[in-house]
Design goal:
The chain is 51% helix and 4% strand. It has helices at residues 4-19, 23-31, 36-41, 48-58, 64-78, 82-89, 95-100, 107-119, 123-132, 140-144, 183-188, 190-196, 203-210, 214-223, 240-248, 263-268; strands spanning 200-201, 230-232, 235-239. It has a three-stranded antiparallel sheet with strand order 1-3-2. Strand 2 (230-232) and strand 3 form a beta hairpin. Helix 5 crosses helix 9 and helix 13 (203-210) crosses helix 14. The longest helix has 16 residues, at 4-19.
């Protein structure tokens, strides 16, 4: 069976056989990287945008546009929330948000996500997903069998692992019709849903929820700018309601909105014990 990385490599080999072009020249002319083909042959998994640039150069159909439409269609047909999809299919709750914003995962991740989507929907849903994604209905069986058809590939399990450095961003919105998640998907996601609904979150979990880095929350606890938190012995925990209240207070309609809380506002608060102008501060 073919995954996206294999599909790209096969397209490269066909082009080289047809044109007699040297691999180094192909890499240099298409991507400015003479060693690209050598790395691809040795198992290198490029990012999606890099692969698509090369595929367009080769005269082949790019993978990215079809993949993004396929993910959107899957969300609409199944009713799964994007952050649950990302956590279960890619190990990253922000995967869908970042993908639709134009970020490019590695091809190994694309293969794993496609395989996960196949395993977690019925045959009828799969055909509807492909139709919504713009894949001809006659290609649906071929896609499900892992055969390359017009740039669409599938795999049982991707062998490459995602290595890009991303800051997770929580995305708690439903895309498309609110249909009941089918039983195979519900079973797959039981552990993840339980985790996501936990009333208290660690610093890492809270940072993921807010789309911040854990280090930012660490700093906010010192400056007092961040959300309310609890200390249970040596552990820091955040409550979801407090995170939502804190985020809601920072909702703005423009960059000139003066309501945005800042450290300066915090220091100027007359009730702040650290304020030098507060007579009760002892300073």
């Amino acid at each position: 069976m073919n995954d996206p990385t294999t599909y790209l490599l096969q397209a490269v080999e066909r082009f080289l056989d047809r044109t007699d072009m040297a691999p180094a020249r192909l890499g240099r002319e298409s991507l400015g990287d003479p060693s690209f083909v050598h790395g691809l042959r040795r198992g290198r998994a490029p990012r999606l945008d890099t692969a698509d640039r090369l595929l367009v150069f080769l005269g082949e159909r790019p993978v990215g546009p079809d993949f993004r439409r396929e993910v959107e269609a899957f969300l609409g047909v199944t009713g799964i929330k994007p952050y649950l999809f990302g956590a279960s299919a890619a190990g990253n709750p922000s995967f869908v948000q970042r993908l639709l914003e134009g970020c490019s995962p590695r091809l190994g991740t694309v293969g794993r996500v496609r395989a996960w989507m196949e395993r977690n929907c019925s045959v009828a849903d799969r055909r509807e997903i492909l139709a919504l994604a713009g894949i001809r209905s006659g290609d649906s069986d071929a896609v499900m069998e892992g055969v390359v058809r017009e740039g669409m590939t599938t795999s049982k399990e991707g062998t490459m692992h995602e290595t890009e450095d991303e800051i997770p961003a929580h995305c708690d919105c439903s895309a498309g019709a609110m249909r009941t998640i089918n039983q195979p998907m519900r079973k797959t996601m039981t552990n993840q849903v339980t985790h996501e609904e936990a009333p208290y979150l660690s610093t890492t979990g809270a940072a993921t929820f807010l789309g911040l880095s854990p280090r930012t929350l660490d700093r906010y606890r010192v400056t007092g700018e961040g959300p309310a938190f609890f200390r249970f012995g040596g552990r820091i925990r955040y409550r979801r309601e407090d995170l939502e209240d804190w985020a809601g207070a920072r909702r703005m309609s423009s960059t000139s909105d003066g309501r945005h809380p800042s450290r300066r506002d915090h220091r100027k608060n007359p009730e702040n014990p650290e304020n030098p102008e507060n007579p009760g501060s002892g300073k």
